[in-house]
Write a structure and sequence with these properties.
The chain is of the alpha+beta class. The protein has one domain: Glutaredoxin, CATH 3.40.30. The protein is built from 8 helices and 7 strands, in the order αββββαβαααααββα. The strands form 2 sheets. A 5-stranded mixed sheet has the order 3-5-4-6-7. It has a two-stranded antiparallel sheet with strand order 1-2.
Length: 213
């Protein structure tokens, strides 16, 4: 009698547990994040792309590189230079979504430089700012202002951008995304939504991306 009673209680409990597991399974779907801009048609399953992102290259290019970078990181600087070479060589085959992360803290924090880079991008002077900053090799406020002047950024637009909500949202979203993806260092690079070990030269990039002229 006791055995029957135990079975009577135990079997329904198993059934409930199995049902709960089944419901959890069928309810789970990988999240798909769409571009906010209707002209951006790509769907990504892991790394969302936002309107605030720095996007380099042709939006319709078939290959997508998403790069978490830090201007104070030497390896990141090397990768950003290679990205430029790739875009020049394969302008219609790749696009690069740059997501800056404030990782560097010494000798200066990279946070402010990322804000300036974002605002330079908004004035269509991403390349000019990046190139001049890499020559300057300093991330302090005076150096950032100097670089902004020599590439002739519009001072009023720059001031408004630096104080605006868009650059703050850009920074916050990147930081939250990095935490969600457990990104702890830069560069961290995704190709077609899969994390990769970054190549050390253009030939390596061409191999990974299966690029030919």
């Amino acid at each position: 009698m006791r055995i029957r009673t135990s079975l009577f209680l135990f079997v329904p409990a198993i059934a409930v547990a199995v049902f709960a597991l089944f419901v959890s399974f069928i309810q789970y779907q990988p999240k798909k994040i769409l571009y906010n801009d209707p002209n951006r048609l790509e769907i990504l399953n892991i790394v969302p792309i936002f309107n605030e992102d720095i996007i380099l290259g042709n939006l319709k290019a078939p290959k997508t590189i998403i790069a978490f970078e830090d201007l104070g990181c030497a390896r990141c600087q090397d990768q950003m230079e290679m990205f430029e070479e790739l875009l020049t060589k394969f302008p219609d085959k790749i696009k690069i979504i740059l997501k800056t992360l404030n990782v560097t803290t010494f000798p200066e924090s990279s946070a402010e430089s990322h804000q300036y880079l974002f605002c330079a991008y908004k004035q269509n002077k991403y390349k000019e700012f990046k190139d001049a900053l890499f020559v300057e090799k300093l991330l302090d406020t005076n150096s950032l202002k100097y670089v902004s002047e020599i590439i002739e950024l519009d001072a009023q637009k720059l001031e408004e951008c630096l104080a605006g909500a868009e650059v703050a949202n850009y920074t916050q979203k990147n930081e939250e995304m990095a935490k969600n993806l457990m990104i702890e260092s830069t560069p961290t690079i995704f190709v077609d939504n899969k994390i990769i070990q970054e190549p050390l030269n253009i030939t390596g990039w061409e191999t990974i991306l299966s690029l030919t002229k």
